[in-house]
Amino acid sequence: MTSLEWLMDGVIMLALIVLAIRVLLIPDLFRAVFLFIVFGLLMALAWVRLDAPDIALAEAAIGAGLTGVLLLDAVRHMHRPVSPTTQPPSEKEAAP
Amino acid sequence: MTMFLAYAVTGMIVFAIGLYGVVIARHLLRKIIALNIMAGGVFLFLISIAARNSQAFPDPVPQAMLLTGVVVALSATAFAIALARRIYTVTGSATLSDGER
Amino acid sequence: MDTIFPWIILLPLTGAIATFLVPRAWVIRTGMVTALLTSCMVFAAAYFLHQNGPVHYAVGSWAAPLGIRLYLDGLACVMLLLTAVSGIFISVYACEYFKDKTSGVLKREGIMFWPLWLFLWGAMNALYVSGDLFNMYVLLELLGLSAVGLVALAGTRTVLIAGMRYLIAAMLGSMSYLLGVAFLYAMHSALDTRMMGALIEPGMGAAIAFALMTIGLLLKTALFPLHFWLPPAHAGSSAPVSAILSALVVKGSFYLLLRLWFDVFHNVVTIPVGQFLGALGALAVLWGSIQAIRQQRLKMLVAYSTVAQLGYLFAVFPVTAGAPPTDGVLGQWVIESGKGTLYHALAHAFSKASIFLAAGIMVHALGTDQLSRMRGMAERLPLTTFAMALAGVSLMGLPPSGGFIGKWLMMHAVLGSGQWWWAVVIMTGSLLTAGYMFMMLRQAFQPCEDPSLFKPVPKTMEWAALILAFISIGIGIRAADVLDLLMIGSPFLIEPIAAVGGAL
Amino acid sequence: MSRFHWSMHVVCATAATFLAAVLIYTVMTLPSEPAGLARLVEDFMNVSGVEHPVTAVLLNFRGYDTWLELGVLLVAVLGMLLFQRQNDLRQIVRMPAAEPVLDWLIRLIAPMMALVSGYLLWMGKYSSGGAFQAGVVLGAACVLLWLSGHPSLESLSGRVFRFLLTVGFSVFMIAGALFMLSKQPFLTYPVATAGHWILLIETAATFSIAVTVAALIMGLQPTYSETEDQP
């Protein structure tokens, strides 16, 4: 294991842990979902490092992509007041 | 300290963080995100098991388990998000308001 | 036998697809035909099992370490019969329950009920015969999702919140179980239960895997400290769904715990672990019964009664953990307590399903399940009250009911193996069960002031509840041959089981 | 963050770190050079009908798991339809027609994505790829078409939509049950034509995964009868 590889793995691992903590503690929900998508992509990168490319492809597509889209869509809709009038999503701070 | 061990340890830490997140979060979407992080931790551990032995190709059985696990976790998350949105539409609040558990 | 075996799983799942695809008018017919066919298949499997013993079935004809092995023995067969018999009567009940009172047309929930219920039934049947650890994880998830779908069927506020809480608990349980399976695979590179049982040796890894998998399954069985999600989910959902959840779904994860304890972790478990699980069971019995007595609504009372009755099932673990494999005498008590636990599960399933169906009839007739409003039910709804009384007899454990046989075997085993304190718990639990059962029946036998309150109720619903109650009494009378069926393939042996080897 | 008392945070944090420490210690004790099933899979590869080990394990050796997993996906869509009180996607509001540049781009990309999806499906036999990756790419194409105002899943009739949802699960089951007629255990493919059967099952699975993925996203969008939908 060359030191360069160790450096890269170290960065990925550290980023995964820090991102996991940040996602849970960040107050704004939108940013939390974006960070979660980045977390999913980093997870896919880690799997490529552990030589499982096809599973990494599936994880990136399903984990980061699809779950991220569903969460983003849910956050956007959950900001609206219950009766979906046409006014844009109110900027009131989402329940933390 | 082989690569497998490093990633397995990261997986365990991420699992614990996810579990902490599920208990602490009050907003339903945060609980769902925390559940996914927990699942990510378990899957990282599974993948590092597959990469342990250094033959020609990694052990395909944990990878197959993983792909099945990812799709099962996806469908559970999609189900939870649909239910959370239904709760938001019906009750107007995105938390399990009456009594938090 | 090999031709019948997979049809137990294929039929309900085919029926689930069919009820999802057919137009509205055909949903009930397709659902009922599937339910009947599945039950016939299960009875046929039981008959074949009785003829030529337990069956190992390799899916895709791949041997165990690589492929998935299914295994049918007495224990699995009894659970299959439990699901089939209560499933039939719950399905008959559901046909009437979801019909709109005025127009008689199937309500929206009625359409969605059938695919989810048949998926759940197929997942239960597959779970009982599964012999592969990861396969059990996928089936647990399938079971959990369809159960949560059924809970949230009515779409009201309480039901949705209860469903969400149940879903989060189920997902936490599945993740913890999956991590346990991952640890086991990391250590022994096998996923088959029998093979793992032979390979496993006590150590830190095995202990952690055991703890994770047990906590996951306890969360899904809703044992005492982890039962928070059960009462609102079981009480809030519609009557046939509560019957399905209380009688069938919680028993699935308990069955897995039993399988893991006897097949996989038999030489990893220690006496304190058994005592700990027994203590949790005892706390569940006492706390659940006390909570049940304090309830004002019938369905909440019955839901807390489920939490309590589940506690009894855990009496088998302290007896088993105490018995070293080589000791023949103690081994005999283990088999006795295993029989007791299974019989209690069987009797509880039928009587609890019957009471929840009766509670559904009460809500159907009176519009509410407040205990105080139950006045005069005995006069106006004689069949329903009779069903409740019979089911109460079985829950309390009065002879000759199935519940009595279960409690008798458990007491016999517990006293025989020298752990007398569990007997005290079983006795007080029965007393408390009698308490809330008579509390419920006393209300029903009050004189009725205003007969006009009671709306007419379809007869099939009342007969479905009554027949289930008769069955829970009947299995007490026909205990001998049910126990013979249970002991085929000797499921409760505790000496290390030889690796799968020759059977394939 | 959450309105819990700070002591709850501290308690949960210490519990989580203790759990992590225990798990890490256990991971340290795991054997680093285990047997693993890689060699066993290698021995049976020639019989499995595909070259790529993961696809072989997924669809042949442990095909039962993958079949049940398609069932789990189906129950997820069933749940979504139940909560949205719909039977299909016909009620979903179609997006307004996109401006010409996006419209032209989508006309170019959508067939490309279908091509990539077919490629991934075909490559599943030889290298990384397979039903799930192909299905997700095809599903993304459907969502893109819907977003840009083109007719997509919401133009399907209820029956066709529901049939497409269940086609993957049913084809897998029928193919598996077919061989039981010749006294073989469930899901046993004849060795000679195993590859073709797996390809057939994967194609059906790709379609139903694509429709499921698109339905999970589009199903939650506002519908025409949103106002009537209020409880």
Biggest interface found: C-D, 50 and 53 residues
Oligomer: heterotetramer
Beta-strand percentage range of chain D: under 5%
Mean pLDDT across all amino acids of chain D = 86
**H/E order of the elements of chain C?**
HHEEHHHHHHHHHHHHHHHHHH
Look at the structure and give the mean pLDDT of chain C.
Answer: 87
Q: If helices are DSSP runs of H or I spanning 4 or more residues, what is the number of helices of chain C?
A: 20
Beta content of chain C comes to under 5%
Question: What does the radius of gyration of chain C come to?
Answer: 22 Å
Distance between the termini of chain C: 14 Å
Strand line-up in the sheet with most strands of chain C: 1-2
Report helical residue fraction of chain C.
over 70%
Q: Regions of chain C with pLDDT < 50 over 5+ consecutive residues?
A: 496-504
For the largest beta-sheet of chain D, the strand count, sense and barrel status come to:
none
Number of E strands of chain C: 2
State the separation between the terminal residues of chain D, measured CA to CA. 31 Å
What class do helices, strands and sheet pairing of chain C give?
A: mainly alpha
Q: Any idea what the shape of chain D is?
A: globular
Topology of chain D as a string of helices (H) and strands (E):
HHHHHHHH
Query: From the helix content, strand content and strand pairing of chain D, which structural class follows?
Result: mainly alpha
Structural commentary:
- The complex is a heterotetramer of chains A (96), B (101), C (504) and D (231).
- Chain A is an all-alpha fold and 96 residues long.
- Chain A contains 3 helices and no strands.
- The N and C termini of chain A lie far apart (43 Å).
- In chain A, 39% of the residues are buried.
- In chain B, 76% of the residues lie in helices and 0% in strands.
- Chain B has 3 helices and no strands.
- In chain B, helix 1 packs antiparallel against helix 2 (28-50) and helix 2 runs antiparallel to helix 3 (60-91).
- Chain C contains 20 helices and 2 strands.
- Chain C has helices at 7-21, 27-52, 74-97, 108-129, 133-151, 157-188, 193-199, 204-221, 230-236, 239-264, 271-294, 298-313, 316-322, 328-366, 377-380, 382-396, 402-416, 421-444, 459-477, 479-486; strands at 55-59, 68-72.
- Chain D has 231 residues and is mostly helical.
- Chain D has 8 helices and no strands.
- In chain D, helix 5 packs antiparallel against helix 6 (131-147).
- Chains in contact: A-B, A-D, B-C, B-D, C-D.
- Chain A binds chain D through residues 25, 27, 53-55, 57-58, 61-62, 65-66, 69-70, 73-74, 77, 83-84, 96, and chain D through 1-3, 52, 54, 127-130, 132-133, 136-137, 139-140, 143, 213, 216-217, 220-222, 226, 230.
